[in-house]
What we know:
Blueprint: E1 2-8, E2 11-17, E3 22-27, H1 34-42, H2 49-53, E4 70-75, E5 78-84, E6 89-92, E7 108-112, E8 131-132, H3 135-145, E9 154-157, E10 165-173, E11 176-180, H4 187-201, E12 207-211, H5 219-236, E13 239-243, H6 247-252, E14 258-263, E15 268-273, H7 277-283, H8 287-290, E16 294-298, H9 301-318, E17 328-332, H10 336-345, E18 355-360, H11 362-375, H12 378-386, E19 391-393, H13 398-407, H14 414-421, H15 431-434, H16 438-441, H17 448-467, H18 471-487, H19 491-502
Parallel strand pairs: 2-15, 3-13, 3-14, 7-12, 12-13, 16-17, 16-18, 18-19
Antiparallel strand pairs: 1-2, 1-4, 4-5, 5-6, 8-9, 9-10, 10-11, 14-15
Helix pairs in contact: 3-4, 3-5, 9-18, 9-19, 10-12, 13-17, 13-18
Amino acid sequence: MIIVLRKIKRIRELSFQIPAKGVSVITGLNGSGKTSLFASIYRIGAKHAFQKFFRTSRLELRLDSYENAEIEYQINGEVVKYHYGGLRWRATPRRNANLFEQSPYASIDYIEASGDRIEPYSDEIQPRRLKNASDEVKQFLVDVLTDGKWNDLKYVNTRRGVGSLAYLIPYQVGGRNYYYSEKSFSLGELCTLKLARKICTAPQNSLLLIDEVEMALHPQAQVKLLRAVQKIAEDKDLTVLFSTHSATLIKNVGRKNLIHLKSDTQGNVSTSVGVFPAQVLGDIAFDDELLTDFVFYVEDKQAKLLVEQMFGMYMAHCHPNSFYRPLYKVAPVGGFVQVLEMLNSSSGIFPNHVKRFALLDQDVKTESLAEARRQQNQILLNLFNTASGKVDYLPCTPEVGVIEMLEGPASQDVLFMNELNGMFNGHHLGIGSLISAADYILLNKANPREKAKDRLNNLVGKISVNTGSDEIHVRRTMYNQYVKYKYANDIGALRALLGPMFNAR
């Protein structure tokens, strides 16, 4: 089966033949077409794929236009092409609109890295309602994460709708039963669990698209993940495509299963199969990994977005000559315990000249560390002590900082609110109205962090719809506004926070 993308985003043309059964790794620079390619493959089994990945705006003729885009599918010697018609993508010729029914795959699933957690209500956690996770899922988790706790994995059906399974790990204290919920799982553990559920229940001869699920895992766990997926793919005759920037996967997948996407200056993307790993590592700038000066570990993607905006302002003021700016990499790892463990154990991964630090959310300092000291929790205190001198804290918990900015005294500053309302050129947002809306006000959980997350999700979704911008861009823009609000008139505070790390010898 061959898929050809034409005039999609920055892609002028990309032709791709879906490989044979087994596990293949697809890599390439950002912008080389990996996500658009996965979206196009996913469309074979999911009618909503184009609407999800190729979103347009109300200014469709001028912004994010797909007017001349074309996606061609060649199946069993027949061809169908899809073009955007203003409301939906239409098949040409229409008689081949059902060509996907000839797909050789029993099912097609898309799995991406996500920190979404499902927590049960307290009254749902009853012994009679708890069910054991399947042996296949538990074994997959044990093999990848090398932790026997997953042998006790259970789940409960929640009231949140069909398919809303909340996973739990039971433990006992003083003869009483307690449970770790998904809230206690790290990002890497969550991603591995979601992949395990999908691949262990995939029918024979299915196609799985896995998008950077391994990113929050230690390199050793990445290798174990690859091996576990390869074993199941062989047993079930699966076709599995990994989209990744991981040097570990590139080095371990095997040359014949390595696919490299490379775009030229005109947007023509070449597809090379069976390339040497070293060629790929050199070409796709794994100097990000090998020639970086600093690695900063953070807890999650939200912290990464915030930190990148802070670094941008710091570099503009403290390193105005862009040629001599230090190179850095920001890596989301999981909960603060996982961040500290990674910081303390990763010295052998990087050359000696690469300095490593952790930037933790503010609530770790004000709540978790304070509680560890009160309770004399030596395990946690030892983690912090081992990392002494390499840990600092963000000015906020990311979502909480943004919401407090929008709802706090700054909301009475007319000039500031005008700037917020004009964050996206050509659109007036009306932030005051958005945070006064009934559906926003009703998001009022007792936990400040959960409340802020819900409210930020609400705002981001609405702004994304109103502006046609993807949600990552909306979040990045809002964190940029927070950084300006926090530091534009106090660069000294930003320099005091980041300077000691960037000036480390």
